[in-house]
């Protein structure tokens, strides 16, 4: 198995140590379980989710897909790594695109995401939200995720934004209980340099912020992404070496 070292640039440390991608995976772990796909029903948004493979009450990770994307397709890139320890919930966007897929609209995303999470939780049963949820946004979904993180008090202490020209508001993040903010992009992604600078811009704040260079990858979630995701999740969970 090819192992890679990620390049980390942190706002409260010069460089974060890379973690080996294999560190999260138990030997002989089964492939992730099949997804459950609930279509939209009236005002209730559609949602795709994967139950954690680990037993007992597990935490929640929410992923918001990109422009004209599909929740099931996007979350297939996250399912293996996330479900090793957490439930994965992927709300479906409501604004349909002419060429297929859907986008999250400007307004009402916070309420739609909360409704989608509630639908998934009603089937998942008991979950562990004692340390809050993890929120991940990709491309356009990163903009929507950041808005939620900066307004949803204490609900999402861990946030990961991928491939988007976002501008962080450290005060709002801190006020709403965000503890760790990870900005990520492949070095072929046009958002790469902006996200690296943005992580550096908030240096010295209370929100621990890092930039993760995901190596030779463009804007799409290509096969390289699987090598870096476990490292990113480990950092968000604060279980990396100090």
Explain the layout of strands and helices.
Blueprint lengths: L6 E4 L25 E3 L8 E4 L9 E5 L6 H6 L2 H4 L4 E5 L3 E2 L5 E2 L5 H16 L9 E5 L1 H10 L8 E5 L7 H6 L4 E6 L6 H10 L6 E6 L11 H12 L6
Parallel strand pairs: 4-5, 4-8, 8-9, 9-10, 10-11
Antiparallel strand pairs: 1-11, 2-3, 3-5, 6-7
- Class based on secondary structure composition and strand pairing: alpha/beta
- Number of distinct beta strands: 11
Largest sheet: 9 strands, mixed
Low-confidence stretches: 1-5, 11-30
Query: What is the architecture at the second tier of CATH?
Result: 3-Layer(aba) Sandwich
Distance between the termini: 26 Å
Total number of domains: 1
Q: Strand-and-helix sequence, N→C?
A: EEEEHHEEEHEHEHEHEH
Question: Superfamily at the CATH H level?
Answer: Alpha/Beta hydrolase fold, catalytic domain
Helical amount = 25-40%
- Shape annotation: globular
Backbone CA Rg? 17 Å
């Amino acid at each position: 198995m090819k192992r890679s070292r990620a390049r980390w640039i942190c706002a409260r440390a010069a460089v974060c140590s890379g973690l080996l991608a294999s560190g999260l995976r138990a030997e002989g772990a089964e492939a992730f379980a099949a997804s459950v796909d609930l279509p939209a029903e009236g005002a209730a948004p559609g949602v795709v989710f994967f139950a954690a493979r680990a037993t007992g009450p597990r935490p929640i990770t929410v992923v918001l897909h990109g422009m004209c994307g599909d929740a099931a397709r996007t979350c297939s890139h996250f399912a293996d790594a996330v479900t090793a320890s957490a439930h994965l919930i992927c709300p479906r966007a409501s604004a349909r695109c002419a060429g297929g897929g859907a986008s999250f609209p400007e307004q009402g995303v916070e309420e739609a995401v909360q409704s989608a999470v509630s639908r998934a939780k009603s089937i998942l049963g008991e979950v562990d939200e004692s340390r809050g949820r993890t929120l991940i946004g990709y491309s356009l979904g990163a903009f929507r995720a950041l808005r939620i993180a900066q307004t949803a008090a204490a609900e999402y202490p861990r946030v990961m934004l991928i491939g988007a020209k976002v501008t962080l508001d450290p005060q709002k993040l801190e006020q709403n209980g965000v503890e760790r903010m990870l900005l990520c992009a492949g070095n072929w992604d046009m958002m790469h340099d902006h996200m690296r600078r943005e992580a550096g811009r908030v240096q010295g704040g209370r929100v621990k912020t890092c930039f993760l260079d995901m190596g030779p990858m463009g804007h799409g979630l290509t096969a390289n992404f699987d090598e870096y995701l476990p490292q990113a999740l480990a950092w968000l969970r604060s279980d990396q070496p100090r």
